[in-house]
Amino acid sequence: MAEQEIKTELPLKKKKPQVAGVNKAAILLLVIGEQDAAEVMKHMGPKEVQSLGSAMANLGNVSRDMVRGVLAEFCDIVDSQTSLGLEAEDYIRNVLVKALGEDKADSLIDRILLGKGSKGLEALRWMEARAIAEMIRVEHPQIIAIVLSFLESDQSAEILSLLPDKIRLDVTLRIATLDGIQPNALHELDDILERQFAGGGSSNLKSSSIGGVKSAADILNFVDTALETDIIENIRDVDPELAQQIQDLMFVFDNLGDIDDRSIQGLLREVPAETLIVALKGADDGIKEKILANMSRRAADMLRDDLDAKGPVRLSDVEAAQREILSIARRMADAGDIQLGGKGEQFV
Q1: Best exposed site among 25, 96, 280, 300 by fewest CB in 10 Å?
Q2: At CA 123, angle to CA 50 and CA 167, rounded to 5?
Q3: How far apart are CA 245 and CA 229, in angstroms?
Q4: What is the pTM (predicted TM-score) of this model?
Q5: Which 8-state DSSP code applies to residue 18?
Q6: Could you tell me if 144 and 159 are in contact, meaning their C-beta atoms sit under 8 angstroms apart?
Q7: Helix-strand-coil split of the chain, %, nearest 5
């Protein structure tokens, strides 16, 4: 009889409220206050902030017991941690931010830390270009154009160069004339890729405004010069006006001569000396003088001596060095550190 009474009473005992997943973090940030919560979120990536922000916005009916439970669990975790127990991701993030600064470290942090759990279209961002090219080369050119428009320009350029010649022009034309895409169509493509990767979550598609002339120009900025010229000329045969629009939006190495001196000086502080030497071996005299004029007399004399001593350099190495400098310039422009201007246009 006593045993039966015990069994009867057990279900009546009050259970501790259970809080799952990201809601724990959301409750914790709401409890610690705006100032400290903001400091914590500074060290999070875009996806983490979005997920956490959504959880905070959707929280409702949070009891005191829930708050106590979350705080108790947090304290237990902190108590069990030592300096050697620091999460590897936090360590990598902190080191990169301290070494490179917030703006410069962002994209690298994303590639290293956020790529592991990505699904669908987002997962492509963390794949090798050759693997993506093999995956999409049999798809309809419109699908390929959407995928390349969604990815980063440098990655898309590498994929484009690996596609068969017969579809490369078609894909570039479709990118240039792509005027966004309906969100439901984008999500459908995302779901297809997600199932192909056997993923269980959903990627966070930020916008359906992809593609367009600027997207095509950004991608062509990263392809080899010979391939870029070939694609532009083929587009010109089909649509001369579109080809000119793409060229007007492209920023090439020769356009460095059009940007202001302060921006050139800022750029030179970020470019490795050896990369600059190789890049200038294939540059015209105007660009060389622009660079030299924005250096100290001693540094300019040393650069001239290095250029004379360098000897012949392969054209492919020159173009690679120039692309590296342009990549640094675009990154700095995106961060607001310099302004890029060319052909009467402002590139930011």
Answers
A1: 300
A2: 130
A3: 14
A4: 0.45
A5: P
A6: no
A7: 70, 0, 25
